Protein: Solute:Na+ symporter, SSS family
Organism: Virgibacillus salinus
Amino acid sequence: MGIEHNPTLLWFVGAYGVIMIIMGIYYSRKISNSEDFILAGKGLGTIVLTGTLLATWTGSGSISGGETSMAFTYGIIPALLMMIPTLVGIGILYLIAPKIREFGKYTVSGILEEKYGSTARMIASIIIILAFVGIVSYQMTGLGFILNLTTGMSVEVGTIIGAVLIVFLASIGGLRSVAPTDALSAFLAIAALFITLPTIYVIAGGWDGVTNNVPAEHLTATGELNNIQLLGFLLPSLFLLLGDQNMYQRLASSTGGKSAKRAQIGWLIGMLLISPAISFIAFASSSMFPNIDPGMALMATTTVMPTVIGGILLAAATAFIVTTGNSYLLSAATNVTYDIVGKYIKKEASDKQLLGMTKFFIILLGVISYILIRFFPTVLEVQMYAYTVYGAGLTPALLAVFFWKRVNMAGGISSMVAGVVTTLIWEILLGKPFELNSVIIALPVAVIVLIVVTLMTSDDRNK
């Protein structure tokens, strides 16, 4: 079956885009200082916090990569397994959320500086920027897919439009405006996915109709992957989530510990609903549209469903993509402003100047994100690269701050450098040998270096 463009769907996307812009402008008028812009004035209640956690984590990484691309390329079981790292990560964050709030920092780099010193802050900022620029880039491509489906315009032109929208919304209101739009997006998406799921299977001829039209390997436990390759897809999301600055900022933005705990429980329940629904819809799509780009699998189903249902799903996908792009772009710009420029270049900057710089760097990093996506052939590939740069480069050292009192500056800094350098060598210089994602190599290297260097450079008094 081929894809027939349905311009009518664009009305749903456009309508939701207008709502997001109006909400963004409205909430931007409530910003009076940097804390309002970056941490929403530490005033996020349970419902809004739940929604923003859901929407930020479930962006184009799930809509175009993650569960979607896995279901299309390798089968339903590998796609469902993609949910496990998220659930484990949410559980661990639930345990350390009180400690995150105690630090009261704008960035993860600030937390690392407390333990490892100013050098760690600079290295961490560079790692975060490298990773988050990659994550933002494939949100832009996700919007390009949507506009291609609805209007037939090229994905490249659609990506440019997506880039402009993401940059605009991130720059006008920060987390103060992003969080409420996130919440609306998350709850709309859950409704849309559960309307779509039974509808698409009816159209595809039921479960038997779907399974009869996919390769036999796509019904096995690992698809065409071996166990090590499968693990290479599962680990990056776990270690990104465990150290994700966006999630730390959101937890620090809650009204209090109780709100944060309730929101994380809501986040867990939401992911139990969203992730399997995306997997099964994309799997049905693979039987109907076997020759499309894997990243378009979920969105392609909108063209064969009743217009209203397809339009609601496409609007929800748009919302997830835009809000995730906004969040990671805002977070990366915060690092540049506070951890690099404000720390080393313009130390006496006023709060107003810092706020202006953050908005400027949102635009600059948005342009870099657009350039970066042109170097990766698929959303899934850039997703795995970005997740591993962050997960191997930062997360082991960050978790050690919370769980290992003995860890020291030498161990933490060495681990960060080892993780990101190993990732870049494996992905770029060696070209990903044996089709193994770099996390399989980079993460063990980062952990081993953390432990060995700490033990070699610490004395018994630091235990």
Remarks:
- Residues 9-379 form a domain with the Sodium/glucose cotransporter fold (CATH 1.20.1730.10).
- The mean pLDDT is 84.
